Amino acid sequence: MSKQELSKSTVDESEAVSTDVVEEINESQSDQSAPEGTEKTDVENKSKDTKPTVNTEDNLELHSLSFRDRQRAKRARIKEHMEGMTKGQKFGYILSYYKGRIILGLVLLAICIAIPVTIYKKSRPVALSYCIVNSPEPSAVDTSFVDEYLDFYNLNGAYQLESDVTVHLDKDTYLEEYSQNSSASVYTELPMLCFNGFYDVMIMDEKGLEYCAMQEIIYPLRNYLPAEIYSEVESRICTADDNDGVNVPFAIDISDTDFAKGLNLGYDKVYLGFPGNTERNYVNAKRMLKFILHLDIDTETTY
Prior knowledge:
By secondary structure, the chain is an alpha/beta fold. About 55% of the residues lie in helices and about 10% in strands. It has helices at about 5-50, 60-65, 65-80, 85-95, 100-125, 145-150, 175-180, 185-195, 205-215, 220-225, 225-235, 260, 280-295, and strands spanning about 125-135, 160-165, 200-205, 235-240, 245-255, 270-275. The longest helix is centred in the N-terminal third of the chain and has 47 residues, at about 5-50. The model is unreliable at about 1-15 and about 45-55 (pLDDT under 50).
């Protein structure tokens, strides 16, 4: 082998050794750096997948979770607390745990039922609305006539009744009573109720008649009743002074009727007056006249 060939061979071997060394160094660096990156990535992924440990007894920690995780934690807490319980104990625990929601649900259900029922009751037609004045013992008043009245006109069913047997009205004492209690509903609300047609009839004694006539809570009969009905009850009509001191026919004396005697009002002289002027008031007023006095009149049409 010549010197030139030997020199070339030596150079080639040297380059080969250098290349191998460089590759080994690169591989060594790659081996040292790769695990660190891989390990870091694995830790990050693991931290993402792992859910934080939560103290399910701590409500603040529960509220920091998402809705789904919060529900899962609550279920885990209930399951943990019920461990070892019998079925009866588990039922009692769940009932106690959710009692707030159960009570709220029942209240909402009651409201949802009560509102439409109340609307339905208040929307039914009024079969009769009456007011009894100056009974000394309101609790002793016998109102059983209402059932007979409803049967008489076949009004049983989808009808409502309104009544008040506790009203006290006296012309001689009302100023004193009103001064002692200026917000007394009997002197403030009753006239407005009558004006708005709430009551169909008023049943009263002489003191009540005098007060209602003076305040014109009831209507004068000559203008209120049709001529044919007025003529049939004319012998029973009683007068009283109106607000101007004019003596006007305001009421019908029903003292001798079985109806009045059966009411047990606590007084003997009983009068019937009419405080409402709506179509319903007129119809029910005629019904009461026919029912009490047995008149042969049309009750289904207004005056």
